[in-house]
Amino acid sequence: MSALDDTICAVATPSGEGGVGIVRVSGPHALTIASKIVRLRCAKSLSEIKPYQLYLGKFLWGHSQAQNQVQPGLATVLDEVLVVIMRAPRSYTGEDVVEVHGHGGPLIVQAICEALTQAGARMAEPGEFTKRAFLNGRLDLTQAEAVLDTIQAKSLHSLKLAQEHLQGGLSGVIKGHRDSLVKLLAHVEAGMDFGEEDIQFIEQKELKDKIREMVGAIEKLIESAQEGRIIREGIRTVILGRPNVGKSSLLNAILDVDRAIVSQIPGTTRDVLEESFMVEGVMIRLFDTAGLRVTTDELEQEGMTRAEEAIKQADVLIMAFDQSQPLTDQDQGFIARYKQQPRVMILNKHDLPPRFSLDDFKNIVKENNSQDEHETAYVQASAITGEGIEQLKRSLKTLAVGKRLEAGDSVLVSRLRHKVLLQQAAEALHNALAAIDDTQSAECVALELRVALQALGEIVGIVTNEDILDQIFKEFCIGK
After folding, report:
1. pTM (2 decimals)?
2. Which CATH architecture group holds 232-407?
3. HSE-up of 160 (CA within 13 Å, CB side)?
């Protein structure tokens, strides 16, 4: 990305037709450049008006600017607009910002952008406005990422989590740990400076206790990453089972639409179908897979390969069984094979006379189960009548996120970048404890504390580099 002394512009509203189209200008020459294309009805210049107030004006595009798009003799007023200025540093980017609010036609907003670039601005790159907010100290890196998460939020809970991060919830915790670590490091290094005088600035037991306390807090954040990712991206749920147990019918019943083809012919589902729905503010991403069986059909084999891959990535499994038929060896093989993930055991076709009871089925599962019984839920359902479908949906949410959403008393990590850096910090702190136990020099302990300090600093952007910033901000849309 280019230097901060450039003035940038971009459309800040979605593409297409709309009631209003907003073009944003930011940089040291924002007011001067915008003044070349707008005239206010109050006859004041942009530098004279009050910030944070809307002023009525006109968007002007001169003949020389139009490059033959406006014929000589025609008026150069192309739209009636509202203009607002925001003075540095009290703006989103921390720079002077001008917003031009015109009618939301693609031609109008494109013309405003072209006029601005001809007046001295350049088009912004993806995420450049938010990157400037970060570089100018308006946001730290976790807050900048939360801006993108807010825009991309697919559920109420993911929006709430993004807003908690945007308000500084996560960065406050990280900075608190970092401040504590700075103090510990200062004590260790002070002892190194006065080593010849045999002066200890912190007792070894107190140092170890404080490091252990910090490790515990960081590992708690790491443990929250799974739930945070689920809230941010949705709960990956896969329906699996042998052919003709009613998987596609269940998918249609859950979605309340005929999304999947239902047939008595085995192998009808060849690919993995994905649909999404909401349960109490949490998005469920539901994958219907091919029935798992032995076959020589190449297309069906490919479908089963994709099904197995989807199963590996799932947060919760829906294991479907036909309660109107006796359990087969294949059914029992699925029970024994897929037991490492949370799962909902759904006994489908409950509208028909059952061939085995729920209690008998539970006993079979327990015989093959090596995981916590709280990781398994049981639902008797009918895709035809809708019985048990709502219970199934609630079970999916409970197994994936438990009670953490209702508690709301802890900060959740939601990005892989944060988790990896927290793991690096925790590893370095464990190494520091090992160095103390092995009576290694204070320099070795200090080195590990510095590694942990750098990892925590990278999370909030205190320590960073251009490659990391480019990777983060290229995910943003242009105009934000």
Report:
1. 0.80
2. 3-Layer(aba) Sandwich (3.40)
3. 13
